[in-house]
Amino acid sequence: MKLEYRSGIGYDIHRLVEGRRLFLCGLEVPYEKGLLGHSDGDAALHALCDALLGACALGDIGEFFPDSDPAYKDASSSLLLEKVRLAVSRKGFSVVNVDIVIIAQEPALRAYKSGMREKLAAILGISPDAVGVKAKTAEGLGEIGRKEAVAAYAAATVRRREA
Question: pLDDT by residue (tens digit) across 14-58?
Fold first, then answer.
């Protein structure tokens, strides 16, 4: 059987609010605000879920985990990503690599990137060498630059498993 590779992209943005914990790539990052969302609001993992779902033509995160479903209220996005990984596997694919860009004016994320890579690798069952995590600021521009939101882009490559 000929090997089949597919790629997907994802994007998400969430508002920063007081009274919530900040989760990015499945790690809690100490900060005075957290991301507003039906789940824990982890914009990076939501973007990654969309990238993986897109690569396998499985729809998007809103279809898999609708914000109208109370089962996902305050859910860990790490668990959502695990469910997406299982859906990818059921469709006959395995994850080859993923790459994430987090855009946040604050907090500084440099100290957390290695832990984020390890966490993602563990959830996806791939090597940390196959996980990219980058952090950027918005140079003071827009809602991200005003410290009102955090956004993330993700790309994922999957390969159909040989029968």
Answer: 999 999 999 999 999 999 999 999 999 999 999 999 999 999 999
Strand pairing class (34-35; 5-17): antiparallel
Query: Rounded to the nearest 5°, which phi and psi values hold at 74?
Result: 60, 20
Task: Indicate the domain borders of the chain.
Answer: 5-160
Per CATH, is 5-160 categorized as 3.30.1330.50?
A: yes
User: Buried b / exposed e across 2-36, counting CB within 10 Å, b at 16+?
Assistant: eeeebebebebbbbbeeebebbbbbbebebebbbe
Residues 6+ apart with CB under 8 A from 70: none
Tens digits of residue pLDDT in 134-143 = 999 999 999 9
